[in-house]
Every structure is written in C-alpha cells, then in structure tokens.
Amino acid sequence: MPNILLLSGDGIGPEIMHEASCVLDRVNDRYSLGLTMETRLIGGAAIDATGEPLPAETLAEAKQSEAVILGAVGGPKWDSLSMDKRPEKGLLKIRAGMDLFANLRPALLYPELASASTLKEDVVSGLDLLIVRELIGGIYFGEPRGIEGEPGQRVGFNTDRYSESEIERIGRIAFDAAMARDKRLCSVDKANVLEVTVLWREVMERLGTEYPEVELSHMYVDNAAMQLVRQP
Fold first, then answer.
1. pTM score over 0.85
2. 128-142 confidence digits (pLDDT tens)
C-alpha cells in the first residue's frame, strides 16, 4: 500500500500541508488509490519536541515512503541556535540521507496571471522554464568548513567542491529534461573565477556530445540572475 509522508515543519508549513492533505484525501477517495499518510517532525518543530532538527525516526520513515511532502523549515525563533542544531540542518540532512541530488523547479506563467506579475506583462508573458538545481554537493556540504581563530582575528570558511560524477548525474537530469521540452539547455556557472565551475563546464560540454539535439549554452551566474528578470 503506497505510503506518503507529510512533513509540515515550521512557519507556513502546517497551513499549506493541511490543504495538501485535503487534496490527497479527495484524490485518494475518488480514485481508490489506497494511499496511507503518515506525519513526522522536521526543522524547528522537531527541535522543540526532540532537540534534533531531523529525528532518526523521521529519516527512517522517509526512506520507507513512496513520496515525501515537505512544508517549510526555520524561523526567527531558532536563529540563535548553533549551526548544527538549526532547523535548516534538518532539511540538508534529509536531502543527503535520501540522496536527493536533483531539484526540479518549474516556472510557468498562466496568461490570466500575467498582469499580476511585478514584471512588465510583455516581458513575463509566455514564461515557461525549468530550473534544475544540484542539492547535495557544492558549498552547502563541502568540507572543511567552520569558524576558527582568536577573537578579533577569526576566519570563517566553506568549501565549494564537486566531483565529476556529481556533476554528470545532475547534468544528465538536465539534458533529459531538455530533450522532453524545447531541446535548449543553459548551464549556469562562474567559470571565469571558480575552478570548481571550470570543471562543471567541462563535464557539461562532454555530456553535450551525447545529446546532439540539445542546444547547450553557458552563462555566468550573475548575468543569469539579471536575465531572469530582464528577459525570462
């Protein structure tokens, strides 16, 4: 029997999860899907109840479920906690624990809502893009990291690290998605400054030879941020 795990989390999470569960209940009843739904704690709610942002039972239940729906984590209440105990650590740990390396973020604008955008209607009309984001590598997970040194001379540091295999697997997700859409793919990096993204670009170029139908382009991340607003 398919099981869906609901993780409401914090802030607006419980509110939107309530609506999501109502929709699931209706669909389950109408189509006799036989779904079961369980709830567990994550983030600040888990910290308040157990002292940990991701209790072991939450991760274990997530691994056994057919799908996991997450609300939100974090809030000002927990901002003073140490980095390893903050709600966001629960989110990072469940990503890593379930090997959730690919995040697909579609952005589609329905014509009826074009006038509601903060961008000009003639700029944003027809918006239909998919952002593919790598989730469990890079600077969020790279080691070493920390804050060291004497007061007044402390140094904070993080490590942005990607292996070829990590880049290749997220790259294939992006190329496959492009094949199912309009066969265009823009890889965003900072290869003019960061060696880690020089490697990223090299791997993407190599993968591109396996997808000759896809038009591969590259864009620096600062320019990409501007173009998403200027000409999405």
1. yes
2. 999 999 999 999 999
